[in-house]
Amino acid sequence: MDKKYYLAIDVGASSGRAILGSFDGYKIGLKEVHRFGNGPIEAAGSLYWDILNIYRECCAGLALAKKKCPKIESVALDTWGLDFGLIGKNGRLSSNPLSYRDPGKYIDNRGRFYEMVPRERLFGITGINPIYTMVPLFYLYGMRLGRQPELGYAAKFLMMPDLLNYFFTGSFCSEFTIANNTMLLDWKTKTWDSYLLGKLGLKKSLFPDIVMSGKKIGNLARKVCTQLEVDSLPVIAAASHDTTSAVAGLPVFKKRWAFISAGTWCVIGIQTEDPLLDTRLLPTAITNEGAAEGKNLIAKNLTGFWILEKCRQRWAMDYGNLLGWGKLAEMAKEAGPFNAFIDIDDQIFSQNHDNMPGLIRDYCARTKQKKPEDIAEVTRCIYESMVLRFKFDLDLIAELGGTEVDLIHLIGGGAKNPLVCQWTSNLTGIPVAAGPVETTSMGNLLMQLKASGEIKSIEEGREISFNSSNILIYEPRDRNRWKEAFDDYVQIVKNN
User: Fold this and answer.
1) b (16+ CB within 10 A) / e for 432-458
2) Strand runs labelled E in 83-151
3) CA gap 281, 279 in Å, rounded
4) Would you give the DSSP letter of residue 97?
5) Which residue, 250, 345, 349, is CA-closest to 291?
6) CA gap 57, 72 in Å, rounded
7) 374 catalytic per annotation
8) Are 464 and 457 within 8 A, CB to CB?
9) Distance between CA 378 and CA 2 in Å, rounded?
10) 10, 193, 242, 345: which one is catalytic?
11) Beta carbons of 328 and 379 less than 8 angstroms apart
12) Which residues have a Cβ under 8 Å from the Cβ of 410 and sit 6 or more positions away?
């Protein structure tokens, strides 16, 4: 068949990219046509997303892609989860969306909410473990408590990818995997839950219709086409939460697999047909998440390379040089092993600190460990601590899910880090399949293939991903040394 072309726009919390996918009936070729930086902006004590710049960069990616390939079948977009914008009755965005790292989103109103809706009932309705205060449900409740006027003027609530899709098409809708992040969906019906909305004092009309991944949202609006000097094309609902898009794009070739998406955030999990509604999940911070085609992930979210990124920023201030990721990996390799560990799941490491290396040293001193002093030691501490936490949570997920794991798919930016990949295999005793790095874009493109009728299911799409991917397999080594380190790590985590 002649090649067909599709455009995936993947916006992460630190960068975004537009990827042109070419499909020949057997595999997908990926070509990056645009990349841009992203990050929250602090103003007057709050952290905002510059959503208009994000949209402008998405438009730039679309325009560049159309210049390179005039005949594009469709476009789809995915972003990180948790954050949202409000559209007023005049169709305009009320304000820049706040970042999930904004201090206001860490205010804990959960206890008061549980007086209305007990935690166990909330879990039973949504399937989601109410771990994080920055989840939209709790933040909307905080807005109600604070009588913030934005809700009174709002006509539509839109999660970040839904907001960008609105800018593209003028249509209001919310894709299932990103809507599920709100903790406002009934997992059985996959619709907004009237009981929870009633407890929040919110009208159901505030929330747009839910569509499943692989469905058409609309076409590029005429004004957008005129502005960008492009012809119209369909806009498709990807699995709009970037984690679920990455899982949709996995080049699966084993039946019993787990995934680790290693980026700014790290997400560990397994895929199931339905949520696991076992209350043993509640004290673990493991949760269910909606996945493509209405499936489910039993997953754990961890602070990931954000910790090292904040260290890089501090070192750039201190030494005048922003060290590259490859250079840091080389330095870590030369540092001594197993000197100190941190618990990357500790909330202090997820926040926006100006001196992350100092915070790491303070943690190590408080837990009676040797403090990592130089850049190499701090970097090695972060890498080893990530891997140790991967093992800790993967064991628990597999136990709760009642499964064994034969292969770990390690995807995202971490797939380019041979230390993290090899050490994960060493510690778990399980082969690690690293790559592709752009699995999120692959999953995005596969949902477009489904919308166009080229494939019928995610399983069919994963075969195409396998055909299209260069995968490195890491086999376990040095298991005894890592087992001893893991025993030490567990004691540090339990005693902290």
Assistant:
1) bbbbbbbbbbbbbbbbbbbbbebbeeb
2) 84-88
3) 5
4) P
5) 250
6) 18
7) no
8) no
9) 51
10) 242
11) yes
12) 259, 260, 262, 420, 421, 424, 432, 433, 434, 435
DSSP of 401-445, one letter per residue? HT---SEEEEESGGGG-HHHHHHHHHHH-S-EEE--TTHHHHHHH
CA–CA separation, 321 vs 266, rounded Å?
26
As given in the structure block, the two tokens for residue 483 are: 């087992």
Distance between CA 214 and CA 464 in Å, rounded? 16
- Calpha distance 349→361 (Å, rounded): 12
- Give the tokens for residue 173: 């809708």
Q: Which token pair is 75?
A: 């476009």
pLDDT tens per residue across all 496 residues of the chain:
789 999 999 999 889 999 999 999 999 999 999 999 999 999 999 999 999 999 999 999 999 999 999 899 999 999 999 999 999 999 999 999 999 989 888 889 999 999 999 999 999 999 999 988 899 999 999 999 988 888 889 999 999 999 999 999 999 999 999 999 999 999 999 999 999 999 999 999 999 999 999 999 999 999 999 999 999 999 999 999 999 999 999 998 778 999 999 988 899 999 999 999 999 999 988 999 999 999 999 999 999 999 999 999 999 999 988 999 999 999 999 999 999 999 999 989 988 889 999 999 999 999 999 999 999 999 999 999 999 999 999 999 999 999 999 999 999 889 999 999 999 999 999 999 998 888 999 999 999 999 999 999 999 999 999 999 989 999 999 888 999 999 999 999 888 7
> Do 391 and 486 touch, CB atoms closer than 8 A?
yes
Residue with token string 């195409």: 464
Best CA proximity match to 333, nearest among 420, 267, 411: 420
- Tell me, what DSSP letter sits at residue 187? T
Catalogue all structural domains in the chain, each as residue range(s) with its CATH number.
4-240 (3.30.420.40), 251-435+471-496 (3.30.420.40)
Please enumerate, as own/partner, the contacts of 90-97 that have beta carbons within 8 Å and a separation of 24 or more. Answer: 91/155, 93/51, 93/163, 94/150, 94/153, 94/154, 95/150, 96/48, 96/49, 96/50, 96/51, 96/52, 97/48, 97/49, 97/51, 97/160, 97/163
Dist CA 162 CA 168 (whole Å): 10
Give the long-range contacts of residues 65-72, CB within 8 A, separation 24 or more. 65/7, 65/18, 65/20, 65/33, 65/34, 66/228, 66/230, 66/231, 68/20, 68/31, 68/33, 69/5, 69/20, 70/231, 71/5, 72/5, 72/6, 72/7, 72/20, 72/233
For 334-422, strand residue ranges (E) read: 407-411
d(CA 230, CA 225): 5
